[in-house]
Structures are given as C-alpha cells and as structure tokens.
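Fold this complex.
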Amino acid sequence: MSNRGLEPERVSGPILQIEDLWVSYRSYGAAPRLALRGVDLAVERGEIVGLVGESGAGKTTLARSIMGVVPPPGALEGGRVCFDGRDLTKVPREDLRKLRGRELAMVVPNPRGELNPLTRVGHQVANIARVHLGLSKAQAKEAALEIFKAVSIPDPERRYRAYPHELSGGMAQRVVIAMALVCSPRFVISDDATSGLDVTVQAQVLELLRALVRDKGSAMLYITRDIGVAAHFCDRIAILYEGEVVEAADKSMLFTDPKHPYTNMLMAAFAQNPDLRRRWHLGRPTRFAEAGRPGQRCSYAGRCVKARPSCVEVRPELRALRPDHLVRCLYPVER
Amino acid sequence: METVLEVAGLYKSFSLPGSRRKVQAVNGVSFTLKRGETLALVGESGSGKTTVGRCVLGLEEPTRGRVLFRGEELSRRNNVRRPHLRGRIQLVFQEPAESLDPRMRIGASIEEPLKALGMPASERAGRVEAVIRRVNLPAAVLDHYRTSLSAGQQQRVGIARAIVTDPAVVVLDEPTSALDPTARAEIIDLLLEIQKATDTSYLLISHDLSAVHYISHRIAVMYLGMIVEQGPAAEVFRRPRHPYTVGLLSSVLLPDPEIRRPTTVSLKGEIPSPIDLPKACFLAGRCPFATEICRRSMPPSEEIAPGHLVHCYHHEQVAQIDQPSDTFAEFQASAERVLGVDVLGADMDEETPRGRRRWASSTAK
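Structure:
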C-alpha cells in the first residue's frame, strides 16, 4: 500500500482527497480563530475512514467544508477538497448543489431537527430522489420504499406516511440515513450520526451502514468522538486535535502501536487503571501550556507528557513513520 | 453493612391525557443499596431508570411499592423536603450546563443547598471552599459564572453542589454521558475518590457500561421498567444470563478492534413503547430465544448464584452458549500492554533526539 495521505493525483486515486485545508471563524474585535489548520486526509473507494476528536476539535467544520457549507462567519482560508479529481472549493455553486445529495451525502445527529415536521417522512425521502434522479412520483415512491427496507425500517408502507414526531429516535435516524442513501451517493459523511442512539440500536445501524457502503461501492467518512466505535467500524482512522490531524493509520496499527501521545491519552481515557491515565497526563496542563507562539508550536504540547522545549519552537509536520502511518509529533512513542 | 436505601416492589405509571391508557414506566422494581456501595441501573432510554431515580428522591410519588431511607418510608408527605431528610439524598444531573443557573456565581450555586438547610452564613463559606477543593477546582472558580467553565468543570460543580450537604445517598443521573472521553475519565476518578473518603452510597443511572464497570459494586439491568437481571458487577459482566444483558454487552465497543465478546446476541428492533404492556416477557418480540411460554406469561425471578437474579425462562440455554468473558478486563490487559510503555524513555535527556533528526530528513525530500 502506498502512502495514501500524501500522494496526490493518481488516476484511480482516492475518491476524496483533502489537502492542506485551512478554515477560520472570524469575529469582530478579535483575531480569527483557526478551526482547521492544514488538514490532509484521503478516503479511498470502498473504504470507511474514521475521524476521531473531542468536541471543539473541528470535526463538524471539516464535514461542512467538504460539503461546501461552512456556516458564517466561517471562511475557507486555503487548501483543496478534491472529490473524484474535482476541486470542490472551485466548483460553481450550482454544480455543487447538484452534487450534494446526489454524489455526496451527509448524515447528521439529531434526526428530528433534520426532518421537516410538517411533511410525511416518505415524501421527504422521495423528493430527494425526484430532484436528483429525475424520477416520476411513482418511481420515487418505489425508490424510497426500497431504501426504507434496506435500512431495516419495519412496515415501510406505514412509516412512509408517518410524520417525524410519530417516529422513535432510532427510527428517525434511519429515515435520515435513508435520505442520505436514496440516490446511492459515492461518498457519505456521517457526523456523529449514531452517538444519540441506544447501544443495541447503534449496533444495528452501524451494521447497516457498513453493508450499504460495501454493496454500493461507496466510501464513507465516519466522524465520532468515540474512539471505541471507530476501532470496530472503520478501516482507517485519523485523529483530529485542535484542527490538525495528529495521527492517521490503519486501525490494526493505530491500536497496537499508537504513536502520538494524544492518541495514547485517548485510549488511556477508556482504561480503568488510574496509573495508566496518570502516565498519559490526563487533562493536566504541562509547563509548556503557555510557551511558544501559536501556530508555530505543537498544539498538544500544553497537555503532552512527552513535551520538551523543542516542541514549542516549531510546528511538527505530518510525516510518515511507515507506509500508511502518519504522525504529527517530534517524539513519537517508541515501543 | 448498613442498608441505607431499600426500594421494594416499586411501580409507577403515568396517565395519558385524553385516554384511559397508561404509560407503565416502572413495573415492580426492588433493590437495596448499602452504605458506601454503588449500584448501577443500566438500560437503554425508555427503560425507566430515571423514573426510579426520581421516585427515590421523592420527586415522583410511586403508584405502588415503597422506598425506605434508613428504614423510614418516603412518601409524598415524608420526603426530601422534610427538614430531617433534607440534603440526605442528593442528585447529580446529566447536563451540567442546564442544571446550573447562568446568572448565579458558582459559589452561590453551591451554597444554595446549605441555605435550604438553614446553616448560618459564617459556616457556609468554609463548607463551600472545602467542597470546591474536594472536587479539585481552584477556589477562584467560586466567583465565576457557569459559562466560563468547560463541561467537565461544570460537572465538577454539579458534584460539589450535591455533596456539600454531606448526603448519605447520591443519585447520579447519567453523570458522564454529556462529556468528552477525557473529562469523563476525570469525573469517574473523582466520584471514586469521594466515595472512598466519605462512604457515600451511589445510585448510578447510566447506559455507559464502561463507566459502570469501573465504579459499580452491583448492577441492575433494566428493560421496560423491570430489572431483568441483577447481581454483583463482576459476575454479571462476566456471566450474563439474561438475553438482553448479553445483547447489551455485545454492543460494547472498546478501543481495540480485536476485543469483542465471543458470544453475541443480536436483538431485533428496538425498545417498544411502554404503553399497555403485555402480561408476558417484555423482550419476547426482540429475543432470539423466545418460545411460546415467553409470549404467554411473565418469567419469575430466579436466583442462579448468590445475589444474582434473572428473569428469564431460558437462562440455562443462555448459560450453555455463553462463554464467560469480560471485554472490559480484556481491554484492560491490552491497554496495559500497549499504553504501559515507558513514557519518559531514555532519549528524554538528549535535546537533539533521534525523532527530530528523522523528522528533518523526511521534510527535506
């Protein structure tokens, strides 16, 4: 396998390639806050890539940047988002609108907020098929019913006529997933879409997403703050910390040999051993918390157990320690 | 050890407006809580965990059954609002942000329960300062407002406010589910620390099985207002005997792709509505073991090991196929292997380490 994260422009290259993406949120009277700082990420066809980070790491901003819908006052500062070879940041608005929903789809959390409360859920799904695939009313209904069956909605005919408030949370989440998948998009982003579900239902929905991605040969970016779910559901995982990808690797490597101290700390947070957690400095600031200049230091140095003076002198690059294992750290963990 | 809380045959139903049907939220729950012990009520949303917690606090009047605090029955008249019971049973909320008044300083929020107890102002200040130290926050936080604190810090304040009255029982309603993994781990450690120092009993309401495994002595698995399985935590996690518990445990995903329970039970569909429940096993519609008898009558409670109670006709069948395994303990071993490396390794002393040189060569390509 080649170095996927860094190697651009292959003919049958990754379906999605993000290169050096910078996004900032401006506010009056203050310096713009950088939400994404040079993110590099590639997703191959047929692959599920996990993006793991805590709240405020920039996960949702990244998802919205891919869709071209960064909410104001957010602005793209630089970089490229290549979807199937086309740079989405340069595609005209109208073309992007056609792409969204058809080729690129996003599943968001809070399904009830996503659905129109005054329209039957079946119509909402069918409308997407009518608009994007140009189907007739009857064909669209058929497509919607088919996707309802595919996402294991029991009694699809009845649920087709239901209003959002008549559905349970798990069922509404399935409808939102059906909405995202009805046009068989080639790329699906799931933004924390299963975290609100109960664990037994989450297990079913994940199973379903995986089957649908595999069957249709699509690819998926699975955004979550739960590194445990990512470990079981994704093929490759990128760890996001303060707007930077700090580590990206195949899951087998990431969990047997995590290189970035932050990744180690995230795993230690699940361990029931206080010594292990103390070893990785859970949550305590270090002597480098205020040192150096922002943007020209390691963003994790303020919490990192391995931090040294050189960590706050220069911003580490994302580099390949071995094929398919990238890390942004001057002193990766040795085992 | 002394029993501080006893819940016996608790039922709670709510009427639906404009209908004779009832929401049967709690259907015959019994458990005891000893001093210094943590009992976890686990289950999915809609299983009635929170309603049990509210009945214990006297915020809901049980439809049937009794709640005894140190042998004294709690009821609508004799509840946590009575002077001698006030502050003895406290609550920590799920959403720390929503449970704190945004216009009150943190110090005032923590002080409020003490005012309700009628403690003189001279004593209150000292208590508030002691409790803020106890939850590992700097005293300066007392002058702040809620909005300047992180979610983890807000939850510490929530805990401080609950323990400031020195309660015997704290009901923890999903104390970690709104938090990031690191803040969550800190809160769990803090709760353990407090219990060790003060011998407080916890009734932990949670669906976070990882947190439950860490801090609970006993667990009670709830499904549609019933405790379907109850027992010592280590035993239930290792040898679950109710199909629902096995299903719940097989859905646990820990950060090691190799760790999965060897036996899994996949439950179909989701938790049904608690309106007009059948007089049979509530899980029958989702359970792969269900037979005719499960759809006809309610399985009785059976004690299959000391203190291990199961409500299932087919628990022996579950025992036959289930291989004992504790994924949390397995993850613990794997985490110690992977994360137990010497962090401050030998190359710590040199300031131009190998790592940096390698980095320099890789960028010079």
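Chain B has twelve helices and twelve strands.
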